[in-house]
Amino acid sequence: MRKIKSILLLTILLPIILNAQKSSETTYTLEECIKIGLAQNLDIIRAKAVIASSQANLKAAFGSYLPNIQFSMGYNRQLNTQGGQSVNVGGQVINIGATSLNSYNMGINAGLNLFDGFNREATYNSAEDTYQGNLLSYDQSKVLLKINIYRRFFDYASKKQIVQTRKENLDQGQQELASIKAQSEAGTLPISAVYSKEADLGSLELDLAKAENDLNISRANLLALMGKNPIEKADFSTADINTDVGENDFTNFRNHIGDFDAAINFAFKNRKDFLSQLKNISAAQNTVMSAQSAYFPSLALGTGWSWSNTAFDDFNNKGRSYIGLSLNVPIFTGFSTNAAVQQAEYSFQIQQVQKSDMELSIKTEIETAFLNLDAAEKQIKISEKALFSADLNYKILKERFNVGTASITDLIQANTQFLNAKINKINSVFYYLLTQKEIEYSTGMLN
């Protein structure tokens, strides 16, 4: 009786548990993946921290235009009460009487840099360029995250469709196996046809298991890129992705990106990493000016007030105020200034070389993306023709097999060709969609 109750209870609870597990699985769209990634990706968070640091440096550079103000205050008490009441002058002891045990002092002074060979101007400009460059680098980090999410999302979407295609093909193969077994039992087909089809299904099951494993790996990689737990139960919706790509899509996208020269010009005006590099060059140039400022004299204004007394009073009589100018002329610094200037100029030259290298890299990326776009368009056209032919061939051979004019080997081969053609079509479509995003990324349009 207990076993019957346990079975009934399990029968009732099992659907509830399965539905609960299914409902706990979160489904993300492509736009949601990008939004979550921009908020939780660790590279984006690090880029934000760099901006905060450079902003602090910029504030400190601005502070060099402001006066430097300091306040000091002190108190001393003599512990040896007998000490200091007499002095020895030439062997003769002279009594000076008791001295106060307490001593107070206080002061405030301010200094203002009037001229330092334009060092503070160059330092501020360099800090500002660095800050602006880091802002652009942060924007580029977001663009880079976007293209990486597109890459992994399309990879997941294609593998998901491949898994579904393989499942459907396996289900269809199992139905064919049941029909072949029935015909074999009726004596219209040899038993070898059954064994051949069973071997083929075993191969299809193995391919499906591999495809499902690839899908799970792709899911984990996409979740990790988003900043999520890679073992989270999640799925990704591909319903909003247009996979029905045709000639109109080719033409519209070509009109959108323009020709190669237009794409190059657009990239140099809009690529955040290239604009950031221009800021780095400007910052390095200002660093050179900052180092050269050590060759010039510096002029500073100083003012203040100080007071000291044995009692905490009489501030007017015991206090004194002052104001003055300080001129510092460098004559010889042991070649340290020369070395600093040379190092700054070397860093400036490196930034210029990096700019040239980036220009070449951008042109190469765009050229590669355009070539890949040409190849992707051709692959879609070829895969569509191959799928159409493979579909017809499979249907014809299936009819011939049913009437006994084709062998089981012919049918299996035709099914394999048809399955491969469907998978090739899936891969070609998502390769084309990714190629579109790669061109937008390389030209700066993805911003």
Give keywords.
alpha+beta, 447 residues, elongated, Outer membrane efflux proteins (OEP)
Task: Write a compact overview of the structure shown.
With 447 residues, the chain is of the alpha+beta class. Helices cover 69% and strands 13% of the residues. The chain has one domain (26-71, 100-443): Outer membrane efflux proteins (OEP).
- Indicate the percent of residues in helices: 55-70%
CATH architecture: Up-down Bundle
Tell me the overall shape: elongated
Strand order of the largest sheet: 2-5-7-8
Order of helices and strands: HEHHEEEEHHEHHHEHEHH
Using only C-alpha atoms, the radius of gyration works out to: 40 Å
Q: State the distance separating the first and last CA atoms.
A: 68 Å
| Mean pLDDT level | 90
What's the total number of strands? Answer: 8
What's the main sheet like? 4 strands, antiparallel
Which superfamily, in CATH terms, is the homologous superfamily? Outer membrane efflux proteins (OEP)
Query: Which class of secondary structure composition applies to the elements?
Result: alpha+beta
* Low-pLDDT runs: none
Overall tally of domains: 1
Q: Which CATH class is shown?
A: Mainly Alpha
Find the CATH topology.
Outer membrane efflux proteins (OEP)
